[in-house]
Design goal:
A seven-stranded mixed β-sheet has the order 4-10-9-8-7-5-6, sandwiched between helices. Strands 11-12-15-14 form a four-stranded antiparallel β-sheet. It is globular. 44% of the residues lie in helices and 13% in strands. It is built from 16 helices and 15 strands. Strand 7, helix 8 and strand 8 form a beta-alpha-beta unit. It folds into two domains: 231 residues, Aspartate Aminotransferase, domain 2 (3-Layer(aba) Sandwich), CATH 3.40.640; 122 residues, Aspartate Aminotransferase, domain 1, CATH 3.90.1150. The protein has 420 residues and is α/β, with parallel strands linked by helices. The model has no long low-confidence stretch (mean pLDDT 97). The structure holds pyridoxal-5'-phosphate.
C-alpha cells in the first residue's frame, strides 16, 4: 500500500487512487536501475504532498509580491541555507521547477540569443539543454559540441580546449546524462578561464555523490552549478542553481522574473528535507554504497562478457554497449522490463544505430542502493541481466518469466519508502 496511505483519494477518485497504488506496487516489485531515478523518503513525500502547494510566493525571501509569506519565507530560507552549507557554496537558488528550466535560466543569465555556447553532444552523453539541436538551447543559441575520444570513451579535453579557443563560447557546460566516469572540473575550469567563458557544472546525476563525498566537487572550479534534486540527491522533483557571490544576482533575476512565476513551495519544503537527510553520516554511507554497488555490478557484467563504455564506472552509472550481442538496446530494455529489471535504452558513443533504436542500455545503482541491495547481490543481478538479454534474442519467454519471479522474491525482502 502507498505510504502515507491515500484514504481520501480512494473515496474521491478511486480510478486515480488505484493507479497510484499500482505504481507504488510496481516500484516495490521492480529492480529499478534507471540511472536518474531513486526512492525518496516518506518524510520527503509528506512535505511534497502538503498544503504548501496552496501558496503563491513570487519573488525571494523578504521580497515577495504577495502577502502571507510568514511561513513560506522561513521554509525557503531553510532550503537555501541547507543547500549552501551542504555544498559549500556562497549562493543557492532553490526555485527552478526542474533541471531543464534551471539550465534555461543559466542561458538567460549569461548569454544573448545567437551567442555561442558549448556542451557535450547528446549522443555522447550530454543533455538536451546543453545545446542539442531540437532543444530551445540549440535553436536560440549557436551551439558547438564536444565529444568523446573514440579509443577510451572518455571526454576529449584536447577537443574541448581546441573548440573553446576557436569558437569562444560564452558558456561551457560540463556534465551529462550518460557519463560513467569522474568529471575533471579543474581541467574544464582552466579552459573556461582561458577563453573567458562561464563554466557551468551540471551535476544533476551526481549531486548526491558529491554531497556524500563520493565524487569530487565542482565548487571552486565552476562558478555556476546546476542540479536536479531528484536523482542521486534523493529529493523531490526539482532543481537548484548554486553559485559564487559574483554570479548570484544574474542567476536570481534569470529564474525570477526572467523565466518563472511562483516557486513550488511544497517542493521547496521537500528539497529542504532532502538536504537535511543528505547532510547526515548515513547519507555519506549511502553515496559511497551507490558507487560500491555500481563498481561491483560493472565487474560482474564484464565477467559475463558485456562490453561497458570506458570499461567500467567511477560513479553510479554504467553504459552497456550491446553492439557485439546481436540485440539492440530497445528490445533488450523491453525484455528486462518484462523481467522486472527496469532501465533505459541509450545511445553509446559513436553509435551506428538510430537514436530511437540505439545500441546501448544505461543502468544506475541509486535506487537499488536505497532499497538496501549490496555488492553481494550484484553478480546475481548481472546474471539475470545476461540471461534476459540472451533470452530476448532467442524469443525465450520462459527464462524471462523465471527471472521475473526471482526478482520479485529478492526485492520482497527490501522495504521501499513510500510503500508499506
Ligand atoms: C536530468 C538532467 C537534466 C534535466 O532535468 P529535468 O528535471 O528532467 O528537466 C539536466 N541536465 C542533466 C545533466 C540531467 O541529467
Amino acid at each position: 500500500m502507498h505510504n502515507p496511505p491515500l484514504p481520501e483519494l480512494t473515496v474521491a477518485d478511486p480510478e486515480l487512487a488505484g493507479l497510484v497504488e499500482a505504481e507504488a506496487a510496481r516500484q516495490h516489485a521492480s529492480i529499478r536501475l534507471i540511472a536518474s531515478e531513486n526512492y525518496v523518503s516518506t518524510a520527503v513525500l509528506e512535505a511534497s504532498g502538503s498544503v504548501l502547494t496552496n501558496k503563491y510566493s513570487e519573488g525571494y525571501v523578504g521580497r515577495r509580491y504577495y502577502e502571507g509569506q510568514q511561513v513560506v519565507d522561513p521554509i525557503e530560507t531553510l532550503a537555501v541555507d541547507r543547500a549552501k552549507s551542504l555544498f559549500g557554496v556562497e549562493h543557492a537558488n532553490v526555485q527552478p521547477y526542474s533541471g531543464s528550466p534551471a539550465n534555461l535560466a543559466v542561458y538567460l543569465a549569461f548569454a544573448q540569443p545567437g551567442d555561442t555556447v558549448m556542451g557535450l553532444s547528446l549522443p555522447m552523453g550530454g543533455h538536451l539543454t546543453h545545446g542539442w539541436s531540437v532543444s530551445a538551447t540549440g535553436r536560440w543559441f549557436r551551439s558547438v559540441r564536444y565529444g568523446l575520444r573514440a579509443d577510451t570513451g572518455r571526454i576529449d579535453l584536447d577537443e574541448v580546449r581546441d573548440l573553446a579557443r576557436t569558437e569562444r563560447p560564452k558558456i561551457i557546460f560540463c556534465g551529462g546524462t550518460a557519463i560513467p566516469r569522474t568529471i575533471d572540473f579543474p581541467a574544464f575550469a582552466e579552459i573556461a578561464r582561458e577563453v573567458g567563458a562561464v563554466l557551468v557544472a551540471d551535476i544533476a546525476h551526481i549531486a548526491g555523490l558529491i554531497a556524500g563525498g563520493a565524487h569530487p566537487s565542482p565548487v571552486g572550479h565552476a562558478p555556476v552549478i546546476s542540479t536536479t534534486t531528484h536523482k542521486t540527491l534523493r529529493g523531490p522533483r526539482g532543481a537548484m542553481l548554486l553559485t559564487d557571490a559574483e554570479h548570484a544576482t544574474a542567476i536570481d533575476k534569470a529564474v525570477f522574473p526572467g523565466l518563472q512565476g511562483g516557486p513550488h513551495n511544497h517542493t521547496t519544503a521537500a528539497i529542504a528535507v532532502a538536504l537535511r537527510e543528505a547532510s547526515t553520516p548515513a547519507f555519506r554511507d549511502y553515496a559511497h554504497a551507490v558507487v560500491a554497488n555500481a563498481r561491483a555490478l560493472a565487474e560482474a557484467l564484464v565477467e559475463r562478457g558485456f562490453d561497458l563504455v570506458t570499461g567500467g564506472t567511477d560513479n553510479h552509472l554504467i553504459l552497456i554497449d550491446l553492439t557485439g550481442k546481436d540485440i539492440g538496446g530497445k528490445p533488450a530494455a523491453k525484455a528486462l522490463d518484462a523481467a522486472g529489471i527496469e532501465l533505459n535504452y541509450n545511445a553509446v558513443p559513436f553509435d551506428k544505430r538510430k537514436p530511437f533504436d540505439p545500441s546501448g542500455i544505461r543502468l544506475g545503482t541509486a535506487a537499488i542502493t536505497t532499497r538496501g541491495l549490496t555488492p553481494a547481490h550484484m553478480p546475481v543481478l548481472a546474471g539475470w541481466i545476461d540471461d534476459v538479454v540472451k533470452a530476448a534474442g532467442a524469443g525465450d519467454t520462459a527464462t524471462i518469466g523465471r527471472v521475473r519471479e526471482q526478482v520479485t522474491e529478492l526485492v520482497s525482502g527490501f522495504p521501499m519508502p513510500g510503500f508499506a
